[in-house]
Amino acid sequence: MGAATPEQFYDALASEYHLLFDDWWSAAQWHGRVIAGILAQQGLAGGRLLDCTCGIGTQALPLAALGYAVTATDVSEAAVERAGAEAAARGIDVECGVGDVREVRDHVHGLFDAVISCDNALPHLLTDGDLERALRSIRACLRPGGLLLATLRDYDALRLTRPEGVPISIHGDAGARHGSGQAWTWPEDGEYVDIELFTFAEDGPGSWRTHSLATRYRALQREKLGSLLTAARYTAVEWLMPGESGYYQPMVLARAGQPQSP
Ligand SMILES: C[S@@+](CC[C@H](N)C(=O)[O-])C[C@H]1O[C@@H](n2cnc3c(N)ncnc32)[C@H](O)[C@@H]1O
Question: Architecture of domain 21-154+220-256 in CATH?
Answer without folding.
Answer: 3-Layer(aba) Sandwich (3.40)
